[in-house]
Amino acid sequence: MKPLIATAVFAILMMFAALTVKEKKSFTHFAAILMLGLVGLNVWELADYNRLLASAQASPDLFGKMLRVDNYALWFNVLMSSCSFFYILLVGRSIEKVGVHVGEYYALHFFILCGVFLLSTYNNLLILFLGIEILSIPQYILSGSDKRNLKSSEASLKYFLMGAFSTGILLMGIVLLYGAMGTFDIHGFNFYATGTLNIMGVVGVLFMLVALGFKVSAAPMHFWTPDVYDGSPTPFTAFMATIVKVSVFFAFMRLFMEGFANLDPYWKVTVLGTITVLTLLIGNITAVYQQSVKRMLAYSSIAQAGFMMFVVIGSNAMAMKGMIIYAVAYTLATVGIFGVLLKLKDYTYDGFNGLAKKHPFLALIASICLMSLAGIPLTAGFFAKWFVIAAALEQPGTFWLVIFALVMAAVSLYYYFKVIMAMYFKTGEPELITPVTTMDKVVMAIIGSAVIVFGIAPDMLLAWI
Amino acid sequence: MTQLVYLVPLFPLIGFLLNGLFWKSMPKKLAGIIGSTAILASFAVSLGIFFEVKNGAAAGQGIVHLFDFITVGNFKIPFAFMVDQLSAMFLLIITGIGFLIHLYSTSYMHDDEGFTKYFAYLNLFVFFMLLLVLGANYVVMFIGWEGVGLASYLLIGFWYKNKEYTNASKKAFVMNRIGDLGFLIGMMLTVYHFGTLSYNDFFAQLQGGIGAQTQNGYMIGSGMTNAIAICFFIGAMGKSAQIPLYTWLPDAMAGPTPVSALIHAATMVTAGIYMIARSNALFNLAPMAQNMIAIIGLATVLLAASIALKQNDIKKVLAYSTVSQLGYMFLALGVGAYVGSLFHVMTHAFFKALLFLGSGSVIHAMSGEQDMRKMGGLGKYMPITKFTFLIGCLAISGFPFFSGFFSKDEILAAAYAKNPMFYYLGLLGAMMTTFYMFRAYFYTFTGNFRGTEEQKHHVHESPATMTIPLIILAILSLVGGLVGLPEVFSHHHLLNEYLSPVVQNFDIHHLDHTMELTLMGIASAIVLIMMYVARVITRKEQFGEAKGLAKVLENKWYVDEIYDFLIVRPLAWKARILNNIVEQKGIDGGVNGLGQLVQWGSTRLKNLQSGQVGSYLFAMVIGIIIIFAIGIFGLLYM
Amino acid sequence: MPIQSYLFLSFSLFAIGVMGVLMRRNAIVIFMCIELMLNAVNLLLVAFSKVHGDPGAQVFVFFIMVVAAAEVAVGLAIIVMMFRKVNSVDINILNRLKN
Asked: Which of A185, B108, B144, B497 could form a disulfide with B131 if both were Cys (CB 3.0 to 4.6 A apart)?
């Protein structure tokens, strides 16, 4: 498991670099190189695994069945580390401006990725717990990293208090499941081992559902999201809202698909459906009223989480595909729109007025990303929604849920297109705080074209499944 | 070479991206070079593909699978290209003539401020057109189909500051949408009945003929095939400007002249013919649709030709002539002479592009004047244009041994074999064609100059980049017919042999040689007579107020007015009612109400986000308890 | 002793922790209540370990302790940072971010 070890090593390397290196810019370069190395390691691991697979020597189980490293998880890791790479290239400049400890910020990103890799490969509730914590604790720090800003500190404390509370709930769920099943191995769960339903196990499932729902900001555990995303330094919001969130969803889906497979499907649809409806409703409806684009994106991330809940509801082969496509489509589009947002001085809708006149390229990329988030055809977001809905429809009793989701997707057009309208049809003098460099343009162009290419040929993302 | 087919549409796409993304900073010269080179490169690859396809490869084998679009269970829509004789032929026409027109445009559009944008659009058009003919299933074709519609819309309205031009582009777009709807319905019917949209699969199922079982378990019946075929034909009607959806094409002349030559004469408008020829397996099983196509085609020939008789705008003459020539192609499709139709597509592409570019050259020399009444005697000043235009006129009239002669003759002979009435009416159309083309020729190039002094001073022969395409196209118009010599002259109908693996004529009785020669003789005699008539009439004609039938013709049979009266106004009237009552009261009320509900909910919900961690935790715990309640309560039903 | 007693004790501790989190306004006290929740879990884990005869759960307890320690380190730092700014650890002061 080279990449997993590498994340920890790279993080420590970054911390040591922070002691010796003075130049802020070199941290970004260093981090980008390390991230590229991480992508390379993941690809290597994937190739290696398939080479072994060809000679029938490969076994996905690692560390005494603590981890299950198969093609699906490895491919997800490749995609997530690639997205992180583009993220660093795009927002590196803004990370340098957050505060003085640039090296540490990057180190924390690598720690988070360590958690991401644990979450994508866990086979044991212990690893799930460790993954969630390794993922969360650096986020508490990152969200409070702008020490001069009281909002940042407030976001950090709010996130920490609520996050720690949800950790307690998660652990309660794990221990109840363990008490009911006698094992932490997610493949060892059988809710009907004694012939009748194991009630303690089901209560454990509910606890875990709530705790994981908290991490992916599903309603009614979403309250931290708008405040934390709004208060945190913007580049870190971009990271928390994308890579972190979809990774937890990945773990969430695997838990329900592999661990809780023999629970009654109607029951799962009822409980998960309730959460989904609430999430879609609160996310979309509240986003309508926002004045700040950054806060709108926070609510939009709740709304998107509502859609991603469909992969958990689906928990089938289609959901596996949908998970990958949604993860990439959502991550790319959100990183892209945050990349544009970071260039602007004013985060309100008015700050976008007339952007198309002054910086047509930024406006174009922002429009592509927003349309993808809204799920317009020919963007990746369309197929993402298409796949997750198709996955959910394979479960019984999801028809009205899907109809509701589509209505909410229509509502989402309102707030996404409000930004596009501001850019193209209003006049104003948008001010940039950081100049748009060639590097930014290249990365944005890559992100924009990727959104469209995956919107035309989503099968490209499913190469390894 | 076949495997490299993706390069063919790739080059124009790259050209489009380069010109489209950097249109602000791109120097004009470079934009022209990029645009033209992209098409030239495509042409080179197309040539390679053509020669490979020419010697061998049976139908349906040259599928190049690029990637899968959508996979749902067993239903797959691959993004695949079909390389066979038919698509290779269209590749050559599109890229070959496309290149000449790009070259021509570098001079023609030289002073336009939107030069780079123009080339970007033109490349985009070529890209979509190539997709249209290359697709191995109807979905890819439809993407191209919509894409060329978009490019055409952009180019018709290229001079968007003129309100009339943008209206023309809107008209074209709307009329095409009507047709597209038909096409789309046809595609859905196909999926429903046959469970596939890819050509090979679809045609293989149709091989069984009436009564066979389809993949989805339906029995092929003539009602089903006719329905699908008619839906497809409605699509073709829109794109290829047939009655009743033809009126957009004359208005589309608002675009720059090279655009008219490429899109509205040589390539895009023949997409409908390509589609029907490609689906010949379907249409052969749909006799009713075939009859409908023949009759509508013929009616279009006559209507458009009669309108062209009295037009004074040189481009309008050519536009109506295009509509009427497209009618011939549909007539041929309707009587089953697929090869004849494709033959005419090819020759028409040569001579109509030539005529349009020639007229462009004239318009360029006249500083934008398009009215023939203000021209005259231009032959003296622009000999190359005059000479090539004459060749174009002879070719389109079907003067013996010019390209149009052979292709039109093949169509007329097939029509005669089907029904002599078709032939006589077709001949009437040919008579009118000769007349209006030579009327245009004589008005423009002979006699005295009727324009202003300033214009006269300015008249000049066009530069080499414009005359070279004219000369090449003139040569092609001259000799292009040799690939399809009729049986009387040669036993090898090259085009027929070339296309035979993909498209074959259906149900055509061969005429005996005497009969065929007689028909040819009649046609040739008529051409000569009509040329003379045109000469006499143009000498005499006074440009006064037209009366009687002439006035009706000048006003295009009042078709636009009739449409306005029958469709547009009632629609507008209904729309007003719908707008005032249903829309504003009902729907708007509903939507606004919903919007207000959303706003109201939004303000409520945002108050939930009080900013207090304590209340968050409290709300969260309440929520958790509710979820637990649902979960535990749900257990009762498990 | 039957497992029910342990369950009862643990749930009581957990509920006290949750109620503390909901009732108190002092960030440090809230934090201590969260620790109480974690310890309830630890207790239950050890009890289940005995029931199932599986030492794995006891190892889990150590992991929870380590993670909790890490959380304490970060959490106290955040609270201190907050205290330096507003001279208070009352969570009701935190309401700049809302709506």
From this structure: B144
Per-residue pLDDT at A32 exceeds 50 = yes
Is B634 near chain C, with CB under 8 Å?
Answer: no
Q: How many residues does chain B have?
A: 638
Predicted confidence at residue B609, as pLDDT, reads 80
Residue C85, token pair as written in the block: 């700014």
How far the first Cα of chain B sits from its last, in Å, is: 62
User: What single-letter amino acid sits at B158?
Assistant: F
Is the bond into B244 cis (omega within 30 degrees of 0)? yes
Which residue has tokens 């269209």? Answer: B90
Give residues with Cβ within 8 angstroms of A437, minimum separation 6: A93
State which amino acid sits at residue B10: L
Q: Do C34 and A144 touch (CB under 8 A)?
A: no
Question: Which residue in A205, A271, A456 is closest to B630 by CB distance?
Answer: A271
- The CA dihedral of C81, C84, C85, C90, to the nearest 10 degrees, is 80
**Which residue on chain C is closest to A145 by alpha carbon?**
C78
- Residue that has been written with the tokens 């009239």 in this structure: B397
**With pLDDT > 70 as the criterion, what percentage of chain B qualifies?**
91
Q: Which chains touch C (3 or more CB pairs under 8 A)?
A: A, B
* Closest alpha carbon to B312 in B250, B361, B365: B250
B621 touches chain C (CB under 8 A): yes
Chain segment A99-153, per-residue pLDDT in tens? 888 999 999 999 999 999 999 999 999 999 999 999 999 999 999 999 888 899 9
> For residue A319, is pLDDT > 50?
yes
CB < 8 Å & 24+ apart, contacts of B79-83: B79/A456, B79/A457, B79/B140, B80/B135, B80/B136, B80/B137, B80/B140, B80/B198, B81/B5, B81/B6, B81/B134, B81/B135, B81/B136, B81/B140, B82/B134, B82/B135, B82/B136, B82/B199, B83/B2, B83/B5, B83/B49, B83/B53, B83/B57, B83/B134
Which residues of C are less than 8 Å from B621 in CB distance? 18, 22
Decide if pLDDT at A209 tops 90: yes
Yes or no, beta carbons of C91 and B610 under 8 Å apart: no
Amino acid identity at A80: M
Domain chopping of chain C, boundaries: 3-93
Q: Nearest CA of chain B to the CA of A249: how many Å?
A: 19
- Taking the CB of residue B169, how many other CB atoms lie within 10 A of it? 24
> What is the mean predicted confidence (pLDDT) over A41-53?
90
- Chain segment A233-289, per-residue pLDDT in tens: 999 999 999 999 999 999 999 999 999 988 888 899 999 999 999 999 999 988 888
Interface test with C, best of B616, B617, B620 (most C CBs within 10 A): B617
Q: Which of B599, B609, B617 sits opposite A288 (nearest CB)?
A: B599
Contact: B614, C97; criterion CB under 8 Å = no
Which residue does chain B place closest to C98, by CA atoms?
A: B611
Parse chain B into domains and list their residue ranges.
Answer: 330-339+347-546, 560-635
The residues, any chain, with a CB within 8 Å of residue C11's CB and separated by 6 or more, are C40
CB atoms within 10 A of CB C7: 17
Q: Give residue-wise pLDDT tens across range B217-263.
A: 777 777 888 888 988 998 888 888 888 788 888 888 878 888 888 88
Contact check, Cβ <8 Å, B611/C96: yes
Say which CATH architecture domain C3-93 belongs to. Orthogonal Bundle (1.10)
pLDDT-derived band of residue B543, with 50, 70 and 90 as boundaries? Answer: low
Give the residue among A279, C25, A274 at the shortest CA–CA distance from B625.
A274
Please state, in angstroms and rounded to a whole number, the distance separating the CA atoms of residues A182 and A159.
Answer: 33
Selected residue of B602, B607, B608, B633 to mutate for chain A interface (largest A Cβ count, 10 A): B602
pLDDT at B60 over 70: no
Search chain B and give the residue with CA nearest A161: B613
Which of A98-107, A421-430, B380-389, B566-575 has the highest average model confidence (pLDDT)? A98-107
